[in-house]
Design brief:
Number of strands: 2
Largest sheet: 2 strands, antiparallel
Low-confidence stretches: none
Radius of gyration: 14 Å
Strand content: 5-15%
Number of helices: 7
Strand order of the largest sheet: 1-2
Structural class: mainly alpha
Mean pLDDT: 94
Number of domains: 1
Length: 123
């Protein structure tokens, strides 16, 4: 991915998921968590391109990001890994074991996850 500021990146990712509640909830979870979208090693899993009409679009390769996380290529705290896995589950319907992930999250992060799940449901 070429260099782009985080706010612009969030805008383009949200544009790509417009109309997809779970996809937008995944992007919003990462944006509100304020960890992953500013990390250069994670940004290798974000693709930025221009449409034929010159409009920028961005998307996350969720399976590749989760695979990199599992291989230790995205070192992070346990709670950060949980947020990424939950976002990937929302964004790409990847399996996640909430029982294993939720226990290590603080109140603030639980609130972010709860909001994302509620948003994905359209409520």
């Amino acid at each position: 991915m070429t260099a782009v500021d985080t706010d612009a990146l969030i805008f383009h990712l949200r544009e790509h998921t417009a109309g997809l509640l779970a996809g937008t909830a995944a992007i919003d979870l990462l944006a509100r968590h304020r960890t992953w979208l500013s990390r250069p090693d994670f940004c290798h899993h974000i693709h930025l391109a221009l449409t034929a009409t010159g409009i920028p679009v961005a998307w996350i390769d969720w399976p590749a990001a989760v695979s990199a996380l599992g291989r230790g290529q995205l070192p992070c705290a346990t709670s950060e890994a949980a947020v990424l896995r939950i976002a990937a589950a929302l964004g790409a319907d990847l399996p996640v074991h909430l029982h294993q992930l939720l226990g290590g999250l603080d109140r603030h992060t639980i609130a972010l996850v709860t909001t994302a799940i509620t948003d994905a449901n359209g409520a």
